[in-house]
Amino acid sequence: MKVEEKVIRKKFDKLNSNNIPKPKLLIHCFNAFWVGGLICVIGQFIGDIFLKIGIPKDQIGTYVSIVMVFLGAVLTGIGIYDKLGDFAGAGSVVPITGFANSIVSPAMEFKKEGFVFGVAAKMFTIAGPVLVYGIGSSVIVGILYYFLRW
């Protein structure tokens, strides 16, 4: 780049950075908080229903996880969860329904490439590294616990 171009680019970057709208951080945090809390309340409500119909307490967590992943996948499939994610940000990503969304979204995006090279190959593009590092770190912690337990 020539010196003139660098000066012009620097002026443009400065002008551009001054005109970028600032995010409304407090409102975004509030929306993330209440939407994430609402997702958790729905999970608790489902757990209470399972408890009332007689499912043992030690199995309720498994059933609730299955139902919440299913709901997250269905809502992603019909396009609602993406709108919720735009509104709530991290409030929709952190609960287990966000995990379902991270698996279903890439699978839907690449379905036109077929089931093997599209859906199956792209399904874990986002969730795959989370699973790999989550499982890997749990194995390391388990080994450390085994050798260092008191």
Automatic annotation (TrEMBL):
This is Stage V sporulation protein AC. The chain crosses the membrane at residues 25-51, 63-81, 87-104, 124-148. It comes from the Bacteria. InterPro entries: Spore_V_AC (IPR014203), SpoVA (IPR005562). PANTHER family: STAGE V SPORULATION PROTEIN AC, STAGE V SPORULATION PROTEIN AC-RELATED. Pfam families: SpoVAC_SpoVAEB. NCBIfam families: spore_V_AC. Keywords: Membrane, Transmembrane, Transmembrane helix.
